[in-house]
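Researcher: First entry.
Model:
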Amino acid sequence: MRRSPVGASVVAALTVLAVAACVGSGAREPSVEPEGSAKNLKTQVLAASAAAIQTDAPTGALNIYLVGFHPMKADANHQFEAHHFCRQVNQDFMQCALFDGNTPAANLHGIEYIVSETLFESLPPEEKQYWHPHNGEILSGQLAAPGLPAVAEKELMRSKMNSYGKTWHTWNTGHGGMAGDALPVGEPTLAWSFNRLGEADPALVEARDRRMSIDTQERRRERQDLVPLAHPQEGVDALKNRFGRPTQPIPGVIDAGAVPVDHPPTATSR
């Protein structure tokens, strides 16, 4: 994976800024309330005691906040907003807990692991089918780090260029105006990424942008200087023509299978 020019110290500083960014972001309440009775007094006291005494070290380290959109690989029109709370474990590996909102009531509905291009290339072919490419999410402007200063968000996105994610959603908490399940039932479903303009439901993106004061189109324009960093990625065409509406290519987002094997490396791919 191409290393960010800002260095490890600035990337570490980004995580601190991301913690503050969670505060004041447009609230996204969960769309479904889990089935069950209200907490009784004993349960409330136990929870308060645990919060005061026990450690929250693993969850406290989830200090990078990203919000984007996922389609299901098996059903491209099952797509929804996903709030990622992540920990950058090392330069090449990030792990995220996914929620259907960004308030204390949000439901945990999935997980995502993010690896650099280097780690992805080390995986066996049968494993790579589970990992979606990220350049489309970044260069489309859809992936955002709410609340971060523009320069910090830009460097965070630069550091994720050419990366891949493996995302399992364990709970259908609602999508596209449809009601979700009151409990996490059924098998986990594999999520994918959007790799062309128009694949994501415009109403979904517009609702997120309006609520969280995010300008996806402006972010797309501001990230054009990241296009030369983009390498062809596997999985870009995995959902091609499966959305039932016209789509347009995103400059720089190319399926690795569309590049001739003998294609000489460019200056930015060495």
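Researcher: Second entry.
Model:
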Amino acid sequence: MRPFLAHPFDDDKLHEECGVFGVIGMADAANFVALGLHALQHRGQEAGGIVTYDPSAGFCSERRFGYVRDSFTKAAVMATLPGSIGIGHVRYSTSGTKGATAMRDVQPFFGEFSMGGSAIAHNGNITNAISLRKELIKRGSIFQSSSDSECIIHLMARSMGRTIPDRFEEALRKVEGAFSVVAMTRTKLMGVRDPLGVRPLVLGKLGDGWALSSETCALDIIGAEFVREIEPGEMVVISAEHGVQSHFPFRRMKPRSCIFEHVYFSRPDSILGGRSVYETRRQIGVELAREAPVEADLVCPVPDSGTPAAIGYSQESGIPYAMGIIRNQYMGRTFIEPTEQIRNMGVRLKLNVNRALIKGKRVILVDDSVVRGTTSRKIKDMILDAGAAEVHFRIASPPTAWPCFYGVDTPERSKLLAATMTEAEMCEWIGIDSLKFISLDGLYRAAGEAKGRDNTSPQYCDACFSGEYPVTPSDMIEKGFEMKVAE
């Protein structure tokens, strides 16, 4: 029996499937990688892994289930990961395999080639992985995992490139979808983003060493200076001999980074697209207050992701901000075996209402999203049980009506509340006095686009809201998924 258990509250949230981190030119690289992964824990809490290289020990690998703090803080474990170069990965299990991740699916993946070994860690999703996998198996490849990321290793093995970076580049030219990848050889650290730049990747510097990370907050934890973002479609190869070498192996395209990174995925203390994630979320609350005002006594966030937007809503509306819901910071995801009685407690294990504050008040609850809506109903019940006079929900993202195929664990479309109900129907189903989502234009304005969304050429990937997919999800189309038809 595995002790690492998902909590019911987490089942009604969208999750990034992973975060990546890598360093080169740093003594005891594994320690820096572990710290970086700890800062990226919000991007993946089910499992993690680290690979390093040391001239005397060769390539070394450790992959574990659970939190980084529980797996990669023990001296005995870290001693097995010597070297001055290393990469790491944290992950959630993908949709359909929740809670059933096998150790063979935990990254980084490693391959031994004629010119030496290489390890890769991938954030995103390869949308043509099924067809690639079938073709590779037909040609003799033997897969060790169920992860789409392993396709990259097999494509590298079949490449005729003279160097590992050449093979890495050739492999990525054959994949579709979203990918931010960090990879390593014995002497080089590599990073690449897909041509649309859907998933983030940044470059940092610490002394004579370099770091690649999914977010800037992980650079902060190791004391590295944020240098810049890796550009969409860019590949960097970093070595002690040549420093950072950059080139663009893909056809240039207009970037379409994921706008939900600004809403929820990224940590609020990260910098994304040159903007403070916290400030964007606060501005979302400002826009939401302008678009959907309501008379009330308190503005309360649904912790913790709704907090910046609630602050912005309060500042713009003039309605006092208050911590009407308190989060149990020590709950975590590891807990006692969930009996039926425990399951029925639902979100009460993580959240509790500040009854003295709520009683008799008209309350605006600000949350980041509504996915299935089950958690919203439970939170509403808690607020009403505490004696609230009215409950109004304000949501810091547009209705999530379409699944994501670019590295986010999204339910099937039929299970997304916004795919089957109007806003008014959702409000009635949840059982609240009012429900309003920020508009797509409002979200774009909060993210720095003063004129809102350019409908002819959107500035971000917003497929989960609009149904407009910048990269055709080939595998899902083959499975029968019906894309939105352009009007």
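Model: Note on the second entry: The radius of gyration is 23 Å.
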